[in-house]
Amino acid sequence: PPRPHRPQVVSLSSPIVGLTIRDSHFRSRYGAVVLAVHRNGERITGGLGDIVVKGGDTMLLEAGPAFLERYKNSSEWALAVDAFRVAPPRRDPFALFTSLTLFVAMILLNRQVAVGGRRLVVGGLAERIAASLLSGFHWLGAAGPVTVVYVTTSLLTALLSNGAAVTLMWPVARDLAKQAGINIKGPLYALMVGASSDFSTPIGYQTNLMVSGPGGYRFLDYTRFGLPLQLISGLITVPICVKYFQ
User: Fold this and answer.
1) Domain count, the chain
2) How far is Cα 60 from Cα 10, in angstroms, rounded to an integer?
3) What are phi and psi of 22, to 5 degrees?
4) What is the pTM (predicted TM-score) of this model?
5) What is the pLDDT of residues 173-220, one digit of tens each?
């Protein structure tokens, strides 16, 4: 079973007061592991074993279920509560199958992206895509080419890796700049920022996915908080690219 995380407050009469956590033989004494120590509302940094315990210290412990029953009425602890229980891992065969399927699909899709990046150049498809995007954003004037590169790259990197998004959009951005008659550096900088600005999905970047499970986040949590960040990033990136790379 999981060992819950329990915040405990050391009493003034505790036998470990005045000793370091290491010298108090905390783990063998209490059958618990100290994860953090707070004093006067601030976390004490440095090596946990070297911290000298004082009365009133708040300790976050990883302890078994017997700890609370044994020490909840003990004079060694001014406060012993049960909180922050870690949920046991769920065994969901369907979720496992879905995850493996998505994993394989992403590998195959990224492989096809590399092939498609070459076809965009050789087949002239990049020029046609650039012309279509340019006509769709012509109402933005000089900001149109840079805006379309940022928006399109941001959408791609939300579903693919940033490397795959750059591979697909590089020839399009190049032809956009050529057809619009502008400095290619503007679209390229927009491409760089757009490919690195996936905040709206958990699958577009590795760290997004890494914190999704432990944090208990849902897919739409990323969209709700991340989409405004992408919008702000675009509102900053596009004017800068237009101003400095006219």
Assistant:
1) 2
2) 11
3) -70, -45
4) 0.53
5) 888 888 888 888 888 999 999 988 888 888 777 777 777 776 677 888
Exposed/middle/buried for residue 46 (C-beta within 10 Å: 0-12, 13-18, 19+): exposed
| DSSP SS3 for 107 | helix
In angstroms, the CA 185 to CA 241 distance is: 8
Boundary residue ending a domain (20, 54, 78): 78
Distance CA 36, CA 59 (A): 6
DSSP β-bridge partners for residue 46: none
* 205 SS3 class: coil
Instruction: Output phi, psi for 147, to 5 deg.
Output: -65, -45
Q: Are 58 and 38 in contact (CB under 8 A)?
A: yes
Task: Give me the amino acid identity at 158.
Answer: A
Proportion of the chain above pLDDT 70, given as a percent: 83
pLDDT of residue 23: 92
The token pair that represents 228 in the structure block: 């405004």
Q: Please say which residue of 20, 53, 78 terminates a domain.
A: 78
Q: Is pLDDT at 84 greater than 50 in this prediction? A: no
| Residue 69 shares a structural domain with residue 189 | no
Residues 241 and 121 in one domain: yes
User: SS3 helix, strand, coil % of the chain, rounded to 5?
Assistant: 60, 10, 30
Range of the domain at 45: 5-78
